[in-house]
Design goal:
2 copies of one chain form a homodimer.
Chain A lengths: L4 H8 L3 H9 L6 H14 L5 H8 L4 E6 L5 H15 L4 E6 L4 H9 L8 E5 L5 H6 L6 E4 L9 E4 L2 H14 L5 E4 L8 H16 L8 E2 L5 H14 L6 E4 L2 H13 L9 E5 L13 E4 L2 H16 L15 E3 L3 E3 L9
Parallel strand pairs in A: 1-2, 1-3, 3-4, 4-5, 5-11, 6-7, 6-8, 8-9, 9-10
Antiparallel strand pairs in A: 10-12
Helix pairs in contact in A: 1-2, 1-3, 2-3, 5-12, 8-9, 10-11
The structure holds a DNA duplex (16 and 16 nucleotides).
DNA sequence: CTGTTAGCGCGTTCAG
DNA sequence: CTGAACGCGCTAACAG
């Protein structure tokens, strides 16, 4: 049975409140009593119960990032960024996993686990806009994700169409004519669709045809899916001389597939990814990729969340904050999987 | 102001207890009242306050993994494994970050954040055995980490010496004679030291000299450190024809460095990593690496934690559990960065 | 089947 | 500077 604050109080011969004051340091306490209290704390091995404090305080000073999966590097890097920023204000980040499915995400919310935190950064991949519309919660939520959601919530996303356009345009400008869209999709509304849109737009702008046979969907296992996409192109004899992979992880699989097929990068096939993961610079050859403005996105996400958590200190009540939808600035990072621009 | 259970009770014209019973489903409730309650819940947008439930219940059904950094792939993969197992028993995993430093780890503990969870899987990299010895907590803790810690706590670790020996022995058996130990250290007691020990042992067993000039330390940024290690070897004219990188992430950097230097893998230099990350299979060429038995380690960690959380249901009280120290089974995964065994 | 009582461990309020 | 009472929101135990 762990010791409670009143155990400590009794042992030190003071009241519970004095113990609390000593521990929080909020009020001045006489040096004598202070030492007696600390001695008792040490003696009993007392440990503060944060659960109780949180209930009392009504806040936890903790933000949660709900990511699709723990083992997706993009979210690991995002979490690290967010964590660093939150530490500056004495708060904490914890990460939970939704399972990358509609059900997992809905459960993450309905289970009210979110109330354990002062705010939620929810990465949406499985839920439909309709699900989001129906979402009822009093917890401050900012959505992260590439599919446009109802404007009931703030949302931070990458500039997907422009990023995809940039990537594809670069491939076309450096000589590729048959650019596969690995991870793409010709329907739906999610990330896969909008990046496919950018791929198509680049072709239009260049006055070149975009062949839907080059749009290859991915599943849940990006690395293997990227490799499999190349295997399939080769197996089916579809000609291609460029790949726009919708994530760097897919691109990593693509590079493996190309090597396996004996295709040289960038001589036979050029490759561009999307995300600019830490590791992408270190692939061989280095991966040309779209950088989605990680730092800006992290800044935006926390700014939006903070104004929900601390509702307009200046303005009066009833000043409902208008949900915002912000977009990170994309840029192309040129490395070895593409040829130099002519 | 979010609605509370008693708001719901009042609106439905029942007692708070009845609301609780409806929501938990633990007791039978009349169909009429049940519907009235649910209507009121919906009406008020009531959301359960888990903090209060946790305080009341004395547990949270949540385990925390304290990892050095969010953006380290090894821990992302570990978290995914642990999470999958915990879901089977209706529990949750959350991940926190310690900052890979002694201070960060100590704070993670002293802040008593741990009381928010039923158990803690603490990855130790910065704390010294002395720190651990001094650690006082009533929270169930299992240590993860490669440095041997005092046996006050359970500990799960890889078989580092044997893994390193296997990796190095394979390099020597396939013709390498000057094997760099990237990430190594000739002093200390941590992971870097024990794997260096294995590197040395393999040389002894093969009757070959181990040159300390080939032991290159790493810093905090594994990818860049791996590349830098190669740059340094080349710059200083130290001859080498093999690399044992102490993590797959370091190995990724090493491969980038070798490519940059125009050295062919595995013809000029063979490379072996350690960890068998998901991505390692997809590097070009595929990374030969030591697999530390991920699944077994995850199983052990949770088994040890569970017996602390649920102290010996069969045995009586006072049956203190003896701390265990278990080790995952290592094996070598052969891929393209090494030549076939002769 | 439903309501009452009591308290989880802490911190705010107001006296002393 | 210190103490006593009350309540944060929920649930176990017992009444009725």
């Amino acid at each position: 049975m762990p010791a409670t604050m009143s155990d400590v109080a009794r042992a030190a011969g003071v009241s519970v409140m004095t113990v609390s004051n000593v521990l929080t340091g909020r009020k001045r306490v006489g040096e004598n009593t202070r030492r007696r209290v600390l001695a008792a704390v040490d003696d009993l091995g007392y440990e503060l119960n944060l659960t109780a404090r949180h209930l009392r305080a009504g806040r936890t000073d903790t933000i949660v990032l709900v990511a699709p999966r723990f083992d997706h590097p993009y979210f690991g890097e995002l979490a690290a960024r967010l964590s660093k920023r939150l530490e500056r204000t004495g708060r904490h980040l914890v990460v939970e996993q939704s399972g990358a499915s509609r059900e997992g995400e809905l459960e993450a919310l309905s289970l009210a686990r979110l109330h354990l935190y002062d705010g939620v950064l929810l990465s949406v991949v499985g839920m439909t806009p309709d699900d989001v519309e129906r979402l009822r919660t009093t917890v401050p939520v900012v959505l992260l994700g590439e599919q446009d959601m109802p404007d009931r919530f703030d949302q931070v996303r990458m500039d997907n169409v422009e990023g995809a356009r940039l990537a594809t345009a670069h491939l076309l400008a450096t000589g590729s004519r048959r650019v596969a869209a690995v991870g793409g999709s010709t329907s739906g509304r999610g990330m896969t669709f909008v990046r496919t849109l950018g791929w198509r737009r680049a072709h239009e702008e260049a006055g070149l045809p975009a062949d839907d046979a080059l749009v290859l969907p991915a599943g849940q296992s990006d690395l293997a899916d990227g490799r499999e996409a190349v295997r399939r192109l080769v197996r089916e004899g579809t000609s291609f001389d460029g790949v726009f992979a919708f994530t760097d992880t897919l691109a990593t699989g693509v590079l493996a597939g190309l090597a396996e097929a004996g295709l040289r990068v960038p001589d036979d096939v050029q490759v561009v990814g999307f995300d600019n993961l830490d590791a992408s610079e270190f692939l061989v050859p280095g991966l040309t990729t779209v950088d989605p403005g990680h730092d800006e996105m992290a800044d935006h996400a926390l700014r939006l969340l903070d104004r929900l958590i601390d509702p307009s200190p200046g303005a009066g009540a009833g000043t409902a904050v208008e949900p915002e939808r912000v977009t990170g600035p994309v840029s192309l990072v040129l490395r070895g999987t593409t040829r130099p621009a002519p």
